[in-house]
Structures are given as C-alpha cells and as structure tokens.
Amino acid sequence: MSILKQKIEELKNLKAEVILGGGEKAIAKQKDMGKKTARERIDALLDKDSFLEYDMFIQHEAREFGMLGKKLPADGVVIGTGKINGRNVAVFAQDFTVAGGSLGFMHAKKITKIMDVALNSRIPLIGINDSGGARIQEGVGALAGYGEIFYRNTISSGVIPQLSVILGPCAGGAVYSPALTDFVFVVEGISKMFITGPDVIKTVLGEEISQEDLGGARVHAEITGNAHFCAANEDDCFEQIRTLLDYIPHNNDKQSQCPAPVKTPLNKVKIETIVPDNPKIPYDVRDVIKAVTDGGDFFEVQALFAQNAVIGYGRINGETVGFIANQPDALAGVLDCDSADKVARFIRFCDSFNIPLVTFEDLPGYLPGVDQEHMGVIRHGAKILYAYSEATVPRVTIILRKAYGGGYIAMNSRHLQADFVFAWPLAEIAVMGAEGAANVIFRKDIADAEDPVDARNKKIEEYKDKFANPYVAAGKGFIDAVIEPCETRKYLIHALNICKNKQVERPYRKHGNPPF
Ligand code: HXC
Fold first, then answer.
1. pTM
2. Atom of ligand 1 nearest to the CA of 136
3. Angstrom distance (rounded) from CA 382 to CA 387
4. Rounded Cα distance, 140 and 123, in Å
5. SS3 465
C-alpha cells in the first residue's frame, strides 16, 4: 500500500471515530429519547449531500476533574455549511452523546467560528441546541464561550436570519443565545428550556414541577412566547425550518429577496362572506389573509402564543409579505402585553430584512384591566407604535371592520406614516364603540330622559350614524380609498408595487431607544 493510501485509510478511521460521537451506548440512549444524533439532524435538515463539516478534530484543553487525556469527539458539537432549498446556510448542532453536549471553551470556539462564517458570508445561521449547559469541569472557560456567542448573536441581528432549534435540554444561561435569535423552534416531548431547573426551584422555593411543565415545548409555544414554531417531531420541525427559509431573505441586502413563481389566489373563497356585518360576531382573520395571498398560502409564526394577534408570511405576486392582523376569534382581537410584543418583534424582523408589511385591522382597542395595566401594557403597547413608526419597508393597512381608539393609531395608521390605508365599507373608525361613547357623552341626557333605555338606544344610533363608518376618516384623507372586499388583492398588488423603491430619509442617530 502506498503511503498516500495508508494516510487516506488513517483519515477514514479517524473520521469514523469522530462520527461515532459518544459511542453506541450513548447513541442508543439518544434514540430511546426519540432524538436523532447531531449529524443525522443535519442530514435530515439540509439538501442531500450538501453539508461540509469543519473542525472534526478539535480537542478540548481541560485538565481538571478527570478531563486530562479524555477524548471528546469533535468536542461535542458539529459545525459546517451546506444548502437548504438550494441556498447556502451555516449550521451548528450540539452532540448530546458527547459529554451531554456540554459547552466547553473549544466547543464554544467552534460555534463562534461558524457564526463568523455565517455573518461574513451573509448566510443564515441555524443552531441546533441539545446540551447540559456549561461544561462543569471547565469553569470560566465555558462561561467565556457563552459570552462570545451572545455577542455574535447580537452583532448578527438584523444582518442575517438566526434560527435556534431546541432539540433537548437548553438550560441556565444557555437559553440566552436562542432568546437573542430571530426564530426558536421546539419539538413536543423533546425540547426543555429554563434558566433554573426543577431541582433548583425545589431547593430554593420548595415547589415541585416537572421539566416538561416548567419549560417544555408547549409552555414556550403557548405561554412564554419564547418559541415561534412547535412541531410534533424532529422531521416536522425540519420541514418548518425549510419552509421559513423559503419565505425570508437570507440577509439584509435588498438583492437577497426570494421571489417565487406566482400562484393564482384561492378563487373558491368569497372574501366578502368571511367578515360578518355584525361587529360583535367573531371570525377567523386568517381566512382573509389566505383569500389575498398567492395560492392561499399562509405560514403562521407564533400561532399558539397571543392568539389575539396573527403574524406570518405569505406571497403576493410572488413576493414575500409579512402579514399582521387582529384576530376577532380570540379576545375580540384586542391588543394586550403579549400580542404587542409579538407584533412589534415581527415588524422589526421584517423591516430588517426588507419584507413589506400588510396589516389587517379589526379591533376594539387595548384590553382593559388591572392585570394588563400592572403588567405594563403602556410599555408593551408602545412597542407597536415604535416598531411601525421606525419601519421603512412598504406598509399597507386594510381596515376590515373596527378601528377604535389607540388601536386605530397603533395598527399602522397614516399618522405613523403608513404608505397606504384602505378601508372596507363596513369599517368603523372612532374613539370608542357607540355603546361606550353614548354612556359617556350622553350620560346626563339619558338619565334625564323619560325613557332612559329608549333615549340611550337613540343616542347609540346617532353616534353610529355619525362615526361608525369609514367616510369621516376618508373625508380627512386618513384613508386613501374605501374599497370593496373583492378588490383587496388588486389594491394590495398596486400599493406594494408603487412602494417597491420606497426611500425614507431619517435624521442621524446612533440608534433609537425602543421601549424594550
Ligand atoms: C459536563 C455534563 C453536563 C455538564 C451533562 N453532562 N451535563 N458534563 N457538564 N453541564 C454529562 C453527564 O455527566 C453525562 O456524562 C452525560 O453528559 C449525559 O448526561 P446525563 O445526566 O446522563 O443525561 P440525562 O439523564 O438525560 O440528563 C440530562 C441533563 C443532566 C438534565 C441535562 O445531565 C443535567 O442536569 N446536567 C447538568 C445541567 C446543568 O446544571 N448545567 C449547568 C447549567 S449552568 P457521562 O460521562 O456519565 O455519560 C450554565 C451556566 C451558563 O449553563 C451561563 C451562561 C451565561
């Protein structure tokens, strides 16, 4: 055998050793938990044979607590680049079979290396997290590694999309890298995310809770809002990632748009039949969105969290659009702390990556109540005002039905410099609903009337006649056109096309100070 052949054999053996990770026993344990190994995950997620792995032979440098001479293949994390839907991506995947995927100094160096590749090459970063957290034997070296990752997450924000996939434990400070990224994916029964786990909670507070109930997939998808997508299994999760990456640009350069062939809209949906005439009757606003998008496609983000607001992606004439809508089917579509956070962050992502925004409005205002006030609805609600006002992408609003009070202003009104505001003939634009308004401004007249009930009804009708329509706002130029529901897609295509090359000059500032 020639020397080269011998060396190639040696390389193959070394690679095979690394690929075996923590060994067959650890792999079997991983499978028993319904989990794939790190490399299987990358293979399942990326286009076939497109992945190139870097730094397979990295060695840790720890010496204490039995670490001297201990082999940790690839130091417990796989990094590299490849393709999804034919477009480049950078990936890291922690390997739980090697020391529980724990993060030591060299493990972190591998992650920051691939983060630098992603940023410098302007390609999305996907991080697959499956780790017991900071490698306990390494102490401050591990903590330093986390700090380096957080810094890069922040510097890359708004330049490349960053996706975090939680496929195992993600505990302690480790949760902050996902929290700094744009989209977090979780899988039922597999993902566990918390700052302090059940053991610490029991010791400090005496409370008992399971890992699942504390920080399982559903908890983060429904309650905390930390997760944007929740899947039943790993394969479904990878499908969601591929779909998302198909919709969004892969960096913040305008040339990075991702137009698709135009599909015909769903003709079978009669858009005028979706929204009931009676403003008290709810409906699913997603049907309105699907009635205007190419092929009726709509990819919802944070579908299970703050369901009174709907956000997600669809295409109009082949171009990706970020949709934001009040959802009359949940809490009558009111704005509250959680929905404000959800909408504001979505606006900022779309604006960073040049995705135009279409807003469908139908809401009675902000949710009243002591809870909301004390949770800081003032601060949270202000995020929507800030995010819309700051956004320089094309912004179009359609008022479907109710647009009352602060909600009218917040949902991308002309006063926040929307490019176009259209209203359906059912639109009601006023400071508040007719019933509430009559009770306040005609309180004395109603009380003094011979028949207060009749007097109140008359005053309600009077207020409705005056304000429960789109024409007062249209008369002041706050609405550009009152349109028939069936004309909505046509008007959206026109408006988005007009704003395609929108340019906005802003005064110099280092950066603004949003009400985080
Ligand atoms: C070193 C670790 C480790 C860690 C797990 N392992 N976590 N090694 N550092 N943080 C090792 C285990 O010793 C074991 O090694 C192997 O990984 C598999 O772990 P198991 O415990 O057998 O697995 P499982 O029963 O599934 O439990 C998983 C787990 C548990 C719940 C994650 O391992 C655990 O509680 N780990 C510690 C979590 C933790 O406290 N991390 C530090 C958080 S503080 P062997 O050799 O036996 O196979 C933190 C600070 C970061 O992260 C701050 C950033 C700002």
1. 0.94
2. 9
3. 9
4. 31
5. helix
Structure tokens at 200: 């610490």
Q: Measured in angstroms, how far is the CA atom of residue 93 from the centroid of ligand 1?
A: 16
Whether 424 contacts 398, CB under 8 Å: yes
What residue ranges of the chain are covered by domains with CATH 3.90.226.10? 3-247, 271-432+469-498
| Residue owning the nearest CA to atom 8 of ligand 1 | 99
Question: How many Å lie between the centroid of ligand 1 and the Cα of residue 413?
Answer: 50
Residue 149, SS3 per DSSP: helix
The closest alpha carbon to 334, from 372, 298, 300, 302, belongs to 372
Q: Is 99 in the pocket of ligand 1 (CB under 6 A)?
A: yes
| CATH number, span 271-432+469-498 | 3.90.226.10
Q: Whose CA is nearest to atom 20 of ligand 1?
A: 100
Fold of 3-247: 2-enoyl-CoA Hydratase; Chain A, domain 1 (3.90.226)
Ordered per-residue pLDDT tens for the chain, 516 residues: 899 999 999 999 999 999 999 999 999 999 999 999 999 999 999 999 999 999 999 999 888 888 888 899 999 999 999 999 999 999 999 999 999 999 999 999 999 999 999 999 999 999 999 999 999 888 898 999 999 999 999 999 999 999 999 999 998 878 999 999 999 999 999 999 999 889 888 999 999 999 999 999 999 999 999 999 999 999 999 999 999 999 999 999 987 777 788 888 876 668 989 999 998 899 999 999 999 999 999 999 999 999 999 999 999 999 999 999 999 999 999 999 999 999 999 999 999 999 999 999 999 989 989 999 999 999 999 999 999 999 999 999 999 999 998 999 999 999 999 999 999 999 999 888 788 888 888 888 888 888 888 888 888 888 888 888 999 999 999 999 999 999 999 999 999 999 999 999 999 999 999 999
- Does residue 21 line the site of ligand 1, with CB under 6 A? no
